[in-house]
Every structure is written in structure tokens, then in C-alpha cells.
Amino acid sequence: MEPRSILHVDMDAFYASVEVRDRPELAGLPLIVGHPGPRGVVAAASYAVRRFGVHSAMPIAAARRLCPQAIVVPPRIARYQEVSAQAFAIFESFTPLVEPLSLDEAFLDVTASRRLFGEPVAIAERLRERVRQALGLTASVGVAPNKLVAKIASDLRKPDGLCRIGADELPHALDDLPIERLWGIGTKTLPRVHAAGIRRFRDLRIAREETLRALFGRHAGAMRRRAAGIDERPVVRPSEERSISAECTFESDLDDLGALRTELARLVDRVGTRLRRTEAAAAQVAIKVRTADFATNHRQRSFEPPARDTATLWRMADAMLSEWLAERPRASIRLLGVAVSDLETQAQSDLFGAPDARASQIDTTVDEVRRRFGASRILRATQIRRDPH
Asked: Which sign does the torsion angle of CA 267, 270, 232, 194 carry?
């Protein structure tokens, strides 16, 4: 069977790049996007500031210590959503099989598009050029036979790069890559993996079964397949999804409630944006919390009527996270995720009456105010940090 042709498109330093595009005087400067203040967290970092060791999810205070001359601007989520919609319209001009991962990242299955647009690398080049001309932004694209390898490939040539890894090159194209590039290897797991003598993909691919079981438990087989570049997951359009989720693995474990709620709000916003894009509503919200010891915890809550507004999703997710943290007050978090499920089309959800429509109007109003005046001019009450004490 002919291998699939999958693209992973990642808009380079998206939030920061949009700010630079809108304010050219920021070009080349060390730029941080995030709410300034003693408990602010880096939402995005330009490549100029990354050279100092600054990265997303880092406390603003720590970033300023690394780069005192950094410029901090508040995020304008509505603006990023607007530009994201324009980018996704470009993606969808090449294939209807587009799976969003966030506002700035997506998988595209272009297997059937080759008859119209040529080989996958040519499609990737045309897509990147169209993004550059239409949006004034750059994108890095990975081309591969599956989602896992495409995502790895896009990261190898960042920023503004293109990398192809063909089916005939697996697993050898991956063998010499540092093991920390493999999805599922985080900062807490990495020392244990290194201690077991696993430093590159090849080491994991050929490791003894008992070694992998000790490191990854029931996920040992999956991790070996990943190291070999094996991934059978299809690209799933939002309208075909049974759930919509977003998650973030932190480079440094978080134990600060304010920082965690900031990250949770960002994830809820991403999920809500994707949910509204599908014209669906959800009847269940779930959170995923992975602690420093790699233990993964889930909580979920169902509700009626189904909703798609950010405020409802935030209330549910925030309540569950607060309850979970109250039971584990000293927990260090390495991964946080939000998901919505029990999805129904907008036509179905309209049957439940006015609350969903009213909440959707609030989202529309907030987005418009942010677009016109900037994100700092208006905040949802649920997104304002409160002292946990």
C-alpha cells in the first residue's frame, strides 16, 4: 500500500511573530509575550530571546533574570485567533484533512492532494510561500509518512524550514537523534532514560524489553514503536473528532497555583476556539494532570445543556484542577491538559435554548474588543488570578 503523505505545519514563534508583524519596530529584539507582573508566565518567546535560555511556560521573573533587556508585551489572544483562522484557511486550500493541534500548529494529510498539487515536498513549499506572502509570517513544515515523524521533522529545521523524512528512511533517519526529541520523554523522565544508557532513538529501539518496562511500564511497547518511527494514527478533522483536547508538557515542573491556572486558561482557550470552529458544543470537560513522578491523573465532569463558550469550559476545568490540587497541595506538575467530549453539532445544541447562544455572543463580543483594542483591555473574570489563600 502506498504510504501516506503527512505534513506537520508549525507557525514559527507564532504569538511573538504576530506581534513583530503588527509592530515592525520589535523586529530582532528579545521579545516575550506574557502578562507582566510577579506571577506572569511566558506565553511565547521570540527566537532573539530564546538564545538567552528563555522558553514558554517559564515565569516572567525568571525570564527577566536571563535576559534583563527583554521586552514584555501582553498577549492578544483574539488577534492570534484571527491570524490563525487565516492560516488554517491556507492549509485547507491544499487538503480538507486538517487536524488542528493549537492556534499555530496542525497536521495535514495531503496523500490525495498530490494529483492536484504535486509531490508532498512541493506542496509544503507552496504552502510555506503562501503563508509568507499572505500573512507575512514563516512556518516550518515536516513531511513524513505519519504524524509522529512529521512533527519531529518540522522541529529539525526551525525556524522557517522544511524537512522530509521518507518511509524508506525509517528508522535510520531517526536513529541518531537525541532521545529527548521523542514524544513522551520529558525533563523528569530524561535522567532515568539516560541512566539506563538510552541517549538516542536507536538505543531505545533496540533496548532490552525489561529495561523499557522498568522505564515506561505498560507504555514500553509504544515507546519502542515511536523510536522506530511507527505511528498509525490518522489525521482527524475537527468535525470528525469525538473529543477536542490540548495539553502542555512543561520544561520545568510547576507547583505554583497562579502559574498553573494561567496555563489552564490558555489550554481552555485553545480548546474553546477549536470547539467553536467545528460549530459543535460539548457536554463533558476533562482535565489531565501528570505529576513529576510520571503518574497521570484524570478528572471529568458532565453537564447540561452542552456548551461551547469559554466561560463554561473554564469554570468546569478550573474547579476540577482546584479540587485536585487541594487534595495534593505539594504536587509538582509536569503536564497539564484539557479535553471536551460528548460533542454535538451546533444545530443539535441549539435545541437546548438560549444559554449557549448568549454565551457564544459573549465570546464574540470579547473577541471583537480584543481584536480592536488589544488583549490587555479586557479579561474574562474567570481568567483573573485570585490569591489561593
From this structure: negative
State pTM to two decimals.
Answer: 0.66
Pick the CATH number of 238-383 from 3.30.1490.100, 3.30.450.30, 3.10.450.50, 3.40.50.720: 3.30.1490.100
CA 13 to chain centre: 12
DSSP 8-state symbol, 347: H
| Residue among 53, 51, 54 nearest 41 (CA) | 54
Q: Does domain 172-227 have CATH number 1.10.150.20?
A: yes
Q: Where in the chain is the domain with CATH 3.30.70.270?
A: 1-164
Strand order in the sheet with 98-102: 98-102, 105-109, 6-11, 139-144, 162-164
Residues 22 and 79 sit within 8 Å (Cβ to Cβ): yes
Question: What kind of architecture, by CATH, is found in domain 1-164?
Answer: 2-Layer Sandwich (3.30)
Per the annotation, the verdict on 323 as an active-site residue is no
A 10 A CB-CB count for 269 gives 22
Q: What distance in Å separates the CA atoms of residue 55 and residue 250, rounded to the nearest whole number?
A: 10
The strand pairing partners of 337, in sequence order, are 247, 288
Residues of the chain with CATH 1.10.150.20: 172-227
75, 83 contact by CB (below 8 A): no
Is residue 263 within 8 Å of residue 254, measured between CB atoms?
yes
The model's pLDDT over 134-163, given as tens digits with 9 standing for 90+, comes to 999 999 999 999 999 999 999 999 999 999
Q: Which of 105, 241, 247, 263 is catalytic?
A: 105
**Which residues make up the CATH 3.30.1490.100 domain(s) of the chain?**
238-383
Q: Please write the tens of the pLDDT for every residue from 201-250.
A: 999 999 999 999 999 988 899 999 999 999 999 998 876 667 889 988 88
